[in-house]
Design brief:
Belongs to the KHG/KDPG aldolase family. It catalyses: 2-dehydro-3-deoxy-6-phospho-D-gluconate = D-glyceraldehyde 3-phosphate + pyruvate. Pathway: Carbohydrate acid metabolism; 2-dehydro-3-deoxy-D-gluconate degradation; D-glyceraldehyde 3-phosphate and pyruvate from 2-dehydro-3-deoxy-D-gluconate: step 2/2. With 210 residues, the protein is α/β, with parallel strands linked by helices. The protein has one domain: TIM Barrel (Alpha-Beta Barrel), CATH 3.20.20.70. The protein has nine helices and nine strands. Strands 3-2-1-9 form a four-stranded parallel β-sheet. Strand 4, helix 4 and strand 5 form a beta-alpha-beta unit. The longest helix has 11 residues. The radius of gyration is 16 Å and the shape is globular.
């Protein structure tokens, strides 16, 4: 991502699970299941009150996981996430204020883009690794393919509408390093706390693009 001293989260696995947690008690067993399935980079979205404590629990109890914070929208989110132990930050979009806060955190980050102008603006600011969101709604694989020739220095993690059915098509693109998604986290499995099923689905997702 954007901190040169840190290894890129984009290269940890072909898929980054995007997790929404309502119950902190689910955080550790869920993270263990994902890691066991071969998906060590885990994005916990800051969409629920439980998210910061869930990040903290995973960071403390599952050291083999690389836990990050998603839906980072401003400096307060950056501070909250880093204090909880987030090892990377993901935003659905970006502003200069948010970008400055993420840079100042010294934690790797993926700012979100959905247009060519946003990509060029980030490249001007020295950022080469980005989240492409909402991927399917913003043009999907065709749009990203069209960016590869004029903007080859940009690398993307598409998220939003990415599924088991289309993940391979994204990962085949030269400017896509990994994808983000939720298909290995079906709602009924989470409600039943069926961590074995989550692990099995994560193992399938870990082979995406191969």
């Amino acid at each position: 991502m954007s901190s040169p001293a840190a290894p890129s989260v984009l290269d940890l696995a072909p898929v980054i699970p995007v997790v929404v947690l309502d119950d902190v008690e689910d955080a550790v067993p869920l993270a263990r299941a994902l890691v066991a399935g071969g998906l060590p980079a885990i994005e916990v979205t800051l969409r629920t009150p439980a998210a910061p404590e869930a990040i903290r629990a995973i960071a403390e109890a599952v050291p083999e996981a690389v836990v990050g914070a998603g839906t980072v929208l401003g400096p307060d989110h950056v501070r909250e996430a880093v204090e909880a132990g987030a090892r990377f930050l993901v935003s659905p979009g970006w502003t200069d204020t948010l970008l400055e806060a993420m840079r100042a955190s010294h934690v790797p980050f993926l700012p979100g883009v959905s247009t060519t102008s946003e990509v060029v603006a980030l490249l001007e600011r020295g950022v080469r690794e980005m989240k492409f969101f909402p991927a399917e709604a913003a043009g999907g694989t065709a749009y990203l393919k069209s960016l590869a020739s004029p903007l080859p220095q940009a690398r993307f993690c598409p998220t939003g509408g990415v599924s088991a059915a289309n993940a391979g098509s994204y990962l085949a693109l030269p400017n896509v390093a990994c994808v983000g998604g939720t298909w290995m986290l079906p709602g009924d499995a989470l409600a039943a706390k069926d961590w074995d099923r989550v692990e099995a689905l994560a193992a399938q997702a870990a082979t995406a693009g191969r």
